[in-house]
Amino acid sequence: PGVVDPATGVLRNAFATAFNDRPFKADLSRLLAREVRLANDANCFALSEAIDGAGAGFGVVFGTILGTGAGGGIVIGGRLLRGHIGRAGHLGHISLNPHGTPDIANTPGSLEDAIGNVTVARRSAGRFQTTRGLIDAVSLGDPFAEAVWNESIRALAAGIASLINCFDPACVLLGGGIAAGSRDLLLTPLE
């Protein structure tokens, strides 16, 4: 995951930071000796679901992938909204706290930091190392885990509400490892 700057071909905002600020597509094409096409996973998810998945038939679709971070994509009339540098719809980099720690895209207090797997240890004061561990503890009724999880879900709800208010999608789709592994624990509080 990350964004390839269409003007320069340079990868930005990838969790695998060794690839940031490098022409990843060109490097990979050279190593494989063939043409390579790259796309953001959340954009692919949103577009696929809008064309022939759960979002088919809706004019405006927002899809988000919740996992290592929180990606997103917006599809309007069957076309992916890319934006100036390909970051349109990237839910994870919405700022929920202007005084928070900057994330990988230098956004202070981002949603990605509030829900992504990459920050679970920090959000839980080291008690949990993965979202799976946190969710398992919530399922067992651990009050501390529930408090951490509920704070993450409140942040996710605020981020989704912000995008709904900006783009007015007819359909909002949740995907990725966190969504798949915590369906009831995620959807019930969001409702």
Structural notes for this entry:
There is one protein chain. With 191 residues, this protein is an alpha+beta fold. It contains 8 helices and 6 strands, in the order ββααβββααααβαα. The longest helix is centred in the last third of the chain and has 25 residues. It is globular.
Question: How is the secondary structure organized here?
Answer:
Layout: E1 3-4, E2 11-12, H1 24-32, H2 41-52, E3 60-66, E4 70-76, E5 79-81, H3 111-115, H4 120-123, H5 131-139, H6 143-167, E6 171-175, H7 177-181, H8 183-190
Parallel strand pairs: 3-6
Antiparallel strand pairs: 1-2, 3-4, 4-5
Helix pairs in contact: 5-6
Determine the structural class based on helices, strands and strand pairing: alpha+beta
Helix segment tally: 8
Low-confidence stretches: none
Could you say which overall geometry the principal axes of the C-alpha atoms support? globular
- Major beta sheet, strand line-up: 5-4-3-6
Largest sheet: 4 strands, mixed
Gyration radius over CA = 17 Å
N-end to C-end Cα span: 28 Å
Number of strands: 6
Fraction in beta strands? 5-15%
Order of helices and strands: EEHHEEEHHHHEHH
The average pLDDT value, as a whole number, equals 91
The residue fraction in helices comes out at: 40-55%
Question: Would you summarize the structure shown here?
Answer:
The chain is α+β, with helices and mostly antiparallel strands and 191 residues long.
Which characteristics define this entry?
8 helices; four-stranded mixed β-sheet; 191 residues
